[in-house]
Design a protein that fits this description.
By secondary structure, this protein is an all-beta fold. Helices cover about 0% and strands about 50% of the residues. Strand 15 and strand 16 form a beta hairpin. It is globular. The relative contact order is 0.16.
Length: about 300
């Protein structure tokens, strides 16, 4: 789908499931595609595990423990990739194979770090702290690097982890600089979009990792104020081209068009209480999941909505 064929729309959410007390945190989520079952995988970083929620049930099942997962993304209906934020190793990217149709069992089949190749990055383990992860339409795996001393902010790995390139810099021209890359996603036309929590924006790169644009900084008018992000966190794209951002500092869920124009608040700003964190949209674009945390990063709720575009 090209930009000229953009099918964006206004949308609304209808609450379906609220999960409380199941997770210590829900830093990122992903829906598994290609099955008749609604399967949501949540990364419970503080709890040290991956948890699957099947068919909108309020009770999840642990599918992997003993890890420190953060970003998580689906490769296909039976394969995940996630970041294991293990400070002893600096952090690993792990491929996880699901071994039954319900997503209740599985195993890690491969793992790697930023030394998987030499396609332009410094590959310095001392400045490597992976955080967010996504899978592009062509099967490449993109990971954000949040280490404060890192020069390379995003890494793109081939599907078999045979090599990597880096893009997004800590220094240089202002539009290319990432201050604190966090979550990342890929859209239907192969672009990579990443939130910059300290830069208060979303940066967009083309399928060849070249900078395209950024949005979320807004301006002085009311319309521009609505478009302004503060400490953006989770990000997801639906099949219609809409970009959905968990605007953590403003405690809302904001929707933008494919070209970065503000459309609406899916979840309006909350005056008090919990900050929006991770967000995911299922492949058929009719279900959306959102996690909300307190200021200490402790999970408040995991919410699953019917996602309705008009």
């Amino acid at each position: 789908m090209s930009m000229s064929n953009y099918l964006g729309c206004r949308a609304k959410l209808k609450k379906r499931v609220k999960v409380k007390g199941q997770l210590a945190s829900a830093n990122d989520m992903t829906f598994l595609p290609g099955t008749d079952h609604s399967r949501l995988i949540a990364s419970d970083h503080k709890g040290g595990r991956l948890v699957v929620f099947q068919d909108d049930r309020r009770t999840g099942k642990e599918i992997l423990g003993g890890v420190r997962p953060y970003g998580v993304a689906s490769i296909d209906s039976r394969t995940l990739v996630f970041v294991d934020e293990n400070l002893a190793t600096g952090g690993l990217i792990k491929r996880f194979s699901i071994e039954d149709e319900f997503g209740s069992t599985g195993r890690v089949v491969s793992q790697w770090d930023n030394n998987a190749g030499s396609g332009g990055g410094s590959n310095n383990a001392d400045t490597w702290r992976p955080r967010g992860v996504t899978v592009t339409k062509s099967g490449q795996i993109v990971v954000t690097n949040v280490h404060p001393e890192a020069q390379e902010r995003l890494y793109m790995f081939s599907g078999d982890a045979g090599g990597s390139t880096s893009f997004g810099r800590a220094n240089g021209p202002g539009d290319l600089v990432f201050r604190c890359p966090n979550y990342v996603t890929a859209d239907e036309i192969g672009r990579v979009l990443a939130t910059d929590a300290e830069g208060n924006c979303v940066k967009v790169f083309d399928p060849r990792s070249r900078y395209v644009s950024e949005f979320g900084q807004g301006g002085g008018g009311q319309k521009d104020k609505d478009a302004r992000l503060t400490r953006p966190a989770g990000i997801a794209c639906d099949q219609r081209g809409n970009v959905i951002v968990a605007d953590s500092g403003n405690r809302r869920l904001a929707m933008f068009s494919q070209d970065g124009r503000f459309i609406q608040d899916l979840r309006p700003p909350q005056k008090m209480g919990l900050h929006t964190a991770g967000v995911a949209v299922n492949p058929s674009a009719d279900r959306l999941s959102l996690s909300v945390h307190d200021t200490g990063g402790n999970l408040g709720k995991l919410l699953i909505y019917d996602y309705i575009c008009a």
